[in-house]
Amino acid sequence: MPGSLIGTLRAACGEEHVLTDHHQLRTYESDGLLQHAVVPRAAVLPASAAEVVAVVRACHEHGVPWVARGSGSGLSGGALPVAEGVLVVLTRLRRIVEVDLPNQRLVCEPGVSNIAISAAVAPTHFYPPDPSSQIVCSIGGNVAENSGGAHCFKYGFTTNYVTGLEVVLADGTVVELGGKELDRPGYDLHGVFVGSEGTLGVATRITVRVVPTPESVRTLVAFFSSPAHAGHAVSEIVAAGVVPGAIEMMDRLSIDASEQMAHAGWPADVGAALLVELDGPEAEIEARFDDVARLCAEAGSSEVRVARDAAERDVFWKMRKAAFPAMGRVSPHYYVQDSVIPRTRLTEVLERIEQLSRDSGLQVANVFHAGDGNLHPLVCYDGHVAGEAERAEELAGEIVLACVQAGGSITGEHGVGVDKKRYMPEMFAEADLAAFQKLRCAFDPDGLANPGKVMPTPRLCGEVPGPYRRHPLEAAGLADRM
Amino acid sequence: MSRVAAQQLLPTSAEEAAAALHETQAVRIRGGGTKLGWGRPLETTAVELRSERLDELVAHNEGDLTAVLQAGVSLARAQEAFAAAGQMLALDPPDGGATIGGVVATGDSGPLRHRYGAPRDLVLGVQVALPDGAVARAGSKVIKNVAGYDLAKLMSGAFGTLGLLTEVTVRLHPRPLGWCTAVGRADDPHVVAQAAVQLAHRPLEAEALDLRWEGDAGAVLARFGGSSAKRRAEAARIMLRDAGLEVDCVVEDEALWATQRDDQRGSAVLRVSATQERLGPLLDVAREHGARVVARAAHGLAWLGLREEAADSLAATVAQVRAALAPSPCVLLDAPAAVRAAIDPWGPADPAQLELMRRVKSRFDPKRRCNPGLFVGGI
Ligand SMILES: Cc1cc2nc3c(=O)[nH]c(=O)nc-3n(C[C@H](O)[C@H](O)[C@H](O)COP(=O)(O)OP(=O)(O)OC[C@H]3O[C@@H](n4cnc5c(N)ncnc54)[C@H](O)[C@@H]3O)c2cc1C
Q: Which of B206, B235, B254 is the last residue of a domain?
């Protein structure tokens, strides 16, 4: 890397905000997917959109790749640095620019945490997409991953709430996509940017829609002998036309683990717990809550517990949210998967996972967003035992394939990153990947933004993939004419 | 593939459509033919690529609340099939003859937009025939997926300028068993706008929340569905009464909402992307010009039905309304061809954004085969 690049970065952001010392850089070598680590050449912490522009422009001039990073909580290696490149850390861009409650919008910088958005519009409003990592993760990361959360079955995902973005493209130009208004004329480029995993540019300003806080919430947990029975209850609830605010499932292993942290006193002999929360107008909850309890009982629930007050509701949620961290107590290491299946295939896919787990000799805990069919199988292993990490990764891969074969997706909310790019061809044909590449090339023809992520194999933009290779020059010529 | 006339291409599969696109210089894409008057006049209309033989309802996965539809399936036909299972695709734009492909391509929506969003929010996956002869898919068939770029968003509202949508996968919702609408009427536009916005700030979970204005009177309409529809409509009725409106609750409310939908059309209609706060001033402007208004209050979206006028004075009215409503973008939908030729139906575009849109277009359709000239900036 030419020394002058570092000089330019230092001039733009200040000496102390450009890290080049190996020891300091190690802080940023991984995101939440600790299985991967790469130390970048430099990490830079700009404090404003203008500084981001200066950084990205300097990288462009020097032909150096860069990776945007929010809070680094991503679970697919999306913010994994590139060894030759610059890591653009956005944690200092953490201003809430405008709380526009009269229009139910909030405008902020990308480093603002997810939970700070709901806090800024409380108590009358809230921002629905609520990843379990919401205390730490940044809205910029949420935008890049199209993050979800427990309330997304009813309320939708990040993409349904982002109405506008200010984006710095890989050549350093700034473009406004969308705005506070909906349906602005033109291509839905903010819609396309959401979920693009940092490969189309850096979001430096984000406008989101916020909605009124529900009048009332009521929560129950129902215990079943197996996840299959609980899955049956989910189908019945949905078929009855109930749209719960959240509907989450935990299996035996994850209940055991969470119990050690949350001490909810849930029965020790059950195979699955189903957490169902109805939120909304009191009148509607009253009309449907008993239906939900009855449907659970009819599906074979051994016990239905209704949260009597806010404290008990918090305990129920603590059990669910503790599942990931608590697993660390049960198993030295674990590997989280994020596949999605059509809800109706739940029983057979769970059986398949159980079979795969038995075959490999590794335990798999299941915690999932049951309404969406988004599974989070946690493959438990001990990295100190030779070969176990590899076996865990292999098992995780087989689980992903089983889900795709059932008509699902390799990832519901964590993103492809580096972790799942090798499974992309299981879901997408070459023509599909070629179409993705067209989009990427429109935004970043030099391939400098987060290279090596999402796409299964690296591609250049000059070539026109697919059967019609003969046109690249014509295409370029036309591009200029337009 | 059969050709009804030399100028019409009627593919029966996505592959045929892609081949046709690749072999033809330029096409006008046609679904149900209900919105051919939208956008800029096409640079060529010599060849028409029609989706009408892509008319299979491929799958209705009742238990998963999803469906796969070929682009030429009429929305009305699809809704009948979903209704039989107590479900709905929560898209209710006007135009009985519209195809799902056309609705998605134009991003059109109706009153249910309030709760369920636009086509972009309900389309889970797409299959498209691209001008380079390829058939590509994006998205998935499940309700949650983040693998790959969201080309479904790119194609929704792209007006067929990047390729032909051949199939879409959509999320369905349970169809509410009963409906009830609270209506509040007033002859002061600010009372109407304020009351509507006030309801938008309450946690009502209405299925739809519209306002309307015509002549010297307006109304707020809040529609509720489900087991508690009547109780909740009654609560909304009281809020509207307290805001000073003349109120009513209507159980047989279908006609009210059919009118809201129909009034999104007219001889000249401007679709305004406003905000909640700009709705009051918008009603003032509409009244000044004798325009009828239908609006999705919470989303700040409005359709202004302009009075019939000669082409040149209509063009002048559009310019005046745009100036008065700035910075809200105003897109001219239905309008006589002479007016669409005289003024840009899309209005001004931000140069940096337009440049990026052109780059997208040139990657997907470098030879400008698909609906050339129709879109923003002449894309
Ligand atoms: C315990 C735990 C629980 C979790 N629970 C959930 C959950 O329930 N639901 C869920 O969806 N996810 C969950 N996650 C995953 C993660 O928190 C989300 O993906 C989150 O959105 C990442 O945000 P971040 O700020 O940490 O982003 P990072 O990890 O820093 O980055 C993620 C990606 O975003 C890109 N990026 C970051 N900022 C920008 C920007 N401003 N512009 C462009 N690109 C940018 C990066 O390049 C990278 O590709 C969980 C993670 C953990 C550790």
A: B254
Q: Which residues contact A438 (CB under 8 A, 6 or more apart)?
A: B363, B364
User: With bands split at pLDDT 50, 70 and 90, how would you rate the model's confidence at A3?
Assistant: low
User: How many CB atoms neighbour CB B43 within 10 A?
Assistant: 13
- Tokens, residue A190: 């903010």
| HEC assignment per residue over B215-234 | CCEEEEEEEEECCCHHHHHH
For residue B190, the tally of other CB atoms under 10 A from its CB is: 14
For chain B, count helices (H), then strands (E). 13, 18
Residues having CB closer than 6 A to ligand 1 are A 31-32, 67-75, 78-79, 90, 110, 131-133, 137-138, 140-142, 144-145, 147-149, 197-198, 202-203, 324, 413-414, 450
Q: Which residue has the tokens 């819609």?
A: A191
Helix (H, G, I), strand (E, B) or coil at A79: coil
Identify the domain boundary among B254, B278, B299: B254
In total, how many domains does chain A have?
Answer: 5
What does the DSSP 8-state code read for residue A213? P
Q: Are residues B6 and B108 in the same domain?
A: yes
pTM confidence score: 0.96
ipTM of the complex: 0.97
Q: pLDDT digits over A263-294, tens only?
A: 999 998 999 999 999 999 999 999 899 999 99
For residue A436, the chain B residue with the least C-alpha distance is B149
User: Are A284 and A335 in a shared domain?
Assistant: no
Tokens for B124? 């889970």
For B227-282, write each residue's pLDDT tens digit: 899 999 999 999 999 999 999 999 999 999 999 999 999 999 999 999 999 999 99
